[in-house]
Amino acid sequence: MLNNTQSIKIAPSILAADFAQLGKQVKEATESGADSIHIDVMDGHFVPNISIGSMIVPSIRSWSDLPFEIHMMVSEPDKYIKDFVDAGANIITIHIELPKIYIEQLTTKNNLELKPYCN
Known about the structure:
With about 120 residues, this protein is α/β, with parallel strands linked by helices.
């Protein structure tokens, strides 16, 4: 149950989109009231599937001014975080603890969300 200070946020994932119509579908999600756009990044190691890289962020930016949430399901997120930040990602979620040095290297113009691995 939500209290007065909580609200539900909707972040549709582009993984469910038709990639031949990706920009158009991002625009439709934006116009439908989404709060952000969720982008799943998979490397084929951390999870068995492979998805997209950082180049997708600027390619769909013109279709939406919503925050882009990057969900990194990758074995070594530190190899990719800077590319996504530079590409314009607003929120980055990872599955393992990130070394402090990488947090310090990120610019303050972007949001960073860390969800460390918990047993």
